Amino acid sequence: LKQVFNKDKTFRPKRKFEPGTQRFELHKRAQASLSSGVDLKAAVQLPSGEDQNDWVAVHVVDFFNRINLIYGTICEFCTERTCPVMSGGPKYEYRWQDDLKYKKPTALPAPQYMNLLMDWIEVQINNEDIFPTSVGKCKEEIL
Predict the structure, then answer these.
(1) What mean pLDDT value characterizes the chain?
(2) Which neighbouring-strand residues pair with 43?
(3) What one GO molecular function would you report for this record (predicted)?
(4) CA-CA 20 to 30 A from 3: which of 52, 89, 104, 139?
């Protein structure tokens, strides 16, 4: 169990919202609704008077943090030897392309693919043009 919670090995630190900000309050509301057993459709509906981009941003970050935690608990069982291909079953193979290092779709072992994917998502989440930290100041529509 100690290995599962070793943040240097298994998962990245969560992106946090500043206490006292509107996004922090939205995050608390989202957390409360998800753990209270309420209808999921109702839990993700935009609260009255809230900015849709801020609401989506909070849920995207929460989703990323949850996926990160889940991946962190299983990543040690999927090595380049045991998972040489990133696939979605026998019919689907995922290939990585980022137009930087990988200019063409490239087959990679699953752990390498996942690390690149999680890094890419983290860069998107930390991009102020996509997810500004100031509430209500989105430069581009998220949806």
Answers:
(1) 80
(2) none
(3) kinase activity
(4) 89
What are the strands, taking DSSP E only, across 58-127?
95-96, 106-107
Residues 96 and 116: beta-carbon distance below 8 Å? yes
d(CA 14, CA 25): 17
138 annotated as ligand-binding: no
Mean pLDDT over 56-63 rounds to 88
* 136 within 8 A of 56, measured Cβ to Cβ: no
Q: How many domains does the chain have?
A: 2
SS3 57: helix
83 is in an annotated binding site: yes
Contact 136, 51 (CB under 8 A): yes
Q: Which residue range forms the structural domain that includes residue 111?
A: 79-130
Q: Which DSSP symbol is given to 47? A: P
pLDDT at residue 51 greater than cutoff 80: yes
pLDDT at 10 over 60: no
The answer to whether residues 73 and 83 belong to one domain is no
Mean per-residue pLDDT, 86-91: 92
Cβ atoms of 110 and 78 closer than 8 Å: yes
What is the mean pLDDT of the segment spanning 68-95? 91
